[in-house]
């Protein structure tokens, strides 16, 4: 049974997409959740090993649209605790 570690990052709309790309590039991420200022989940993206490039493009496009509409919020990432830093 795997255990997961969560981390949260605050963002402003213009930095959302860059931060998501940075998080995904860092690796070991199992799930990305984007919440608005009120804590409401806007997007919940499960990431599996090997999801890269064109498979991730539709999710990044959706995140870009959210960034245009949301001024502030929180990014929650879930990592596998056995491989997390």
Nutshell version of this structure?
This protein has 85 residues and is of the alpha+beta class. It has helices at 16-26, 57-69; strands at 4-12, 29-36, 41-46, 72-80.
How would you describe the overall organization of this protein?
With 85 residues, the chain is an alpha+beta fold. The chain is 28% helix and 38% strand. The protein has two helices and four strands. It has helices at residues 16-26, 57-69, and strands at residues 4-12, 29-36, 41-46, 72-80. The chain has a four-stranded antiparallel beta sheet with strand order 1-4-2-3, with helices on one face. A hairpin with a 4-residue loop joins strand 2 (29-36) and strand 3 (41-46). Helix 1 (16-26) runs antiparallel to helix 2 (57-69). The two termini are 19 Å apart. The mean pLDDT is 80.
Largest sheet: 4 strands, antiparallel
Helix content: 25-40%
Strand order, largest beta sheet: 1-4-2-3
Low-confidence stretches: none
Strand content: 35-45%
**In angstroms, what is the radius of gyration?**
12 Å
Q: For the residues shown, what is the average pLDDT?
A: 80
Shape: globular
Strand-pairing-aware structural class: alpha+beta
Number of strands: 4
Number of helices: 2
**First-to-last CA distance:** 19 Å
Q: List SSEs in N-to-C order.
A: EHEEHE
Show the helix and strand layout.
Layout: E1 4-12, H1 16-26, E2 29-36, E3 41-46, H2 57-69, E4 72-80
Antiparallel strand pairs: 1-4, 2-3, 2-4
Helix pairs in contact: 1-2
Characteristics:
28% helix, globular, alpha+beta
């Amino acid at each position: 049974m795997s255990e997961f570690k969560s981390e949260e990052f605050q963002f402003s709309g213009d930095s959302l997409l860059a931060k998501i790309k940075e998080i995904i590039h860092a690796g070991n991420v199992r799930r990305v959740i984007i919440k608005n200022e009120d804590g409401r989940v806007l997007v919940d993206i499960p990431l599996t090993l090997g999801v890269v490039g064109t498979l991730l493009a539709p999710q990044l496009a959706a995140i870009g649209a959210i960034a245009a509409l949301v001024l502030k919020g929180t990014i929650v990432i879930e990592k596998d605790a056995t491989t997390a830093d």
